[in-house]
Amino acid sequence: MTRKSTPHVVALCGSLRDESRTNVALESLLATARETGATTELVDLRSYELPSLHAVESEPPDADRLRATIADADSVALGTPNYHGSYAGSLKNALDYCRREEFAGTTVGLLEVAGGEFPGSAIDHLRTVSRTLHAWPLPTDVAVPNAHTTITDEGIADEAVAERVRQLGRDLVAYAGVATDSETIARGR
């Protein structure tokens, strides 16, 4: 990955629901990233055919499409609903199709949407996965509590949460390519 003058931010949505609150939050994040000068893309896993990894003899073509999308990104937002204290199985399966080559050095922002009051555990799990994939997770993330009232059809109703989501969008643009930049600086170039 090399830093481009116009960063490309990809959001990977782990929710498969039609009325996904995770999707609403990621759309807000991407809108802010666009306003900050990035190109953006939302990966809606409902439009990808990704059976459970190794459930079929041959690799589905959508696995290559997903890997190419991630490899082309300067920053990736991983968004998930909280399911039983962790992240969505659909996101896990999609990430299983990716390799370290696609994520290595990529800036990653984490966003969790929870139905209850205490989100955060899914973010912890995604941070570990991001590090395993050699990505560069941002030190700040967004955990959205009480999604049924915090996020409506019109957007994020809680202004403090909305600002944290917007800030994550700005950070994904500002720190796009930071791992590559720091490696270049470390080598004295």
UniProtKB/TrEMBL annotation:
Single GO cellular component term: cytosol
Lineage per the UniProt record: Archaea, Methanobacteriati, Methanobacteriota, Stenosarchaea group, Halobacteria
Cofactor(s) required, per the database record: [4Fe-4S] cluster
GO MF annotation list: FMN binding; oxidoreductase activity
NADPH-dependent FMN reductase-like domain ranges (all copies): 8-148
InterPro entries: Flavoprotein-like_sf, FMN_Rdtase-like_dom, NAD(P)H-dep_reductase
Pfam families the UniProt entry points to: FMN_red
Protein name (record): Flavoprotein
Family of the protein in this entry: Belongs to the SsuE family. Isf subfamily.
